[in-house]
Please model this.
Amino acid sequence: MTESTAVLVFARAPVPGAAKTRLMPALGADGAARASAALTRRALRTAADARLGAVELWCAPDCSHPFFADCAFEFGVTLHAQSAGDVGQRMAQAFDDALGRHARVVLIGADAVSLQAADLAAAAIALNGHDAAFAPAEDGGYLLVALRSRQPALFDGPAWGSSSVWTQTCARLDAQGLRTCVLPTGYDVDHPADWQRALREGLLEGGAC
Model:
């Protein structure tokens, strides 16, 4: 295996009523689905702009939605199906797969709207002297995780979706003695206020969906 780096973008198919449901009170089902698609495209542009290596789009519930094929054509990315299970199980499986093909892997969520290409590059560089790199989120989760070896215990047990995910992950990092680089805290888009904030800050092209 060469000393290659891959960026994995986790995304859900933009199906009305099933994508970004917490945005639906403000945007409606169709608007929330369009927002989901816009966030995924932004994440893919960010990953491409980082110029770290291969960019992979990890799709849920599978790769069959036409939007994913459009993304593969537009951005030149490869498509991979997320596994079953909670987000921790899905991330662990993705790392297991990707670290079999690449020396370093950076994983981000499609809604991690505050991340810039420089953040992804910083995470990859940090792995030269650290075992892991993370970008915490304001809501208590995290936006990015980068690893150079499989660490399934990091993803086994946190109360996913809660405000204590990052705290619980830090405890696991300490217990395993992993040297960790912590990047600046940012935010993702979960609620209408997050969406409006991203628009105000110019983080999404083309305005509101």
Observations:
- The helical segments are 24-50, 66-75, 87-98, 117-126, 165-176, 192-200.
- The mean pLDDT is 95.
- The chain has six helices and seven strands.
